[in-house]
Design brief:
The protein is α+β, with helices and mostly antiparallel strands and 122 residues long. It has a single domain (2-116), classed as Maf protein (Alpha-Beta Complex). The protein is built from four helices and five strands. A hairpin with a 2-residue loop joins β1 and β2. It is elongated.
Length: 122
């Protein structure tokens, strides 16, 4: 059994999945032009026991105008996404740079999962 959840951290402020469009707009405005951390926690339970790990990726957003934020919100991609964006979709346009595991930002840090259970691949 595998459990994974992701959040976005800007300084000490934590952002999960926005509950509505207004919260998503506020989250994107806070992240605009700044670097944040995408943190995913994994817990794997199998016949060998329980193992857990975390993955951290640094993402820097482009500066954004209110109209750019509205454009993105109108895509609907923000719904159900930690930090209110989906890097694998139109949300890629919000990103200036990334340092670390891209798949962590998508939602499943595969490299960290392989570290927990190497038999998945090898």
């Amino acid at each position: 059994m595998l459990g994974v959840d992701t959040l976005v951290a800007l300084g000490e402020h934590l952002y999960g999945k926005p509950g509505d469009r207004q919260e998503a707009a506020a989250t994107l405005a806070a992240l605009a032009g700044r670097s944040h951390r995408v943190v995913s926690g994994l817990c794997l339970i199998d016949a060998d026991g329980e193992r857990s790990a975390a993955a951290i990726t640094h993402v820097r957003f482009r500066p954004m105008t209110e109209s750019a934020i509205d454009w993105y919100l109108n895509t609907g991609e923000w719904q159900g996404r930690a930090g209110g964006y989906a890097i694998q979709g139109r949300g890629a346009a919000l990103v200036e740079s990334i340092e670390g595991d891209y798949l962590n930002v998508v939602g499943l840090p595969v490299a960290t999962l392989v570290d927990l259970l190497p038999s998945l691949v090898f």
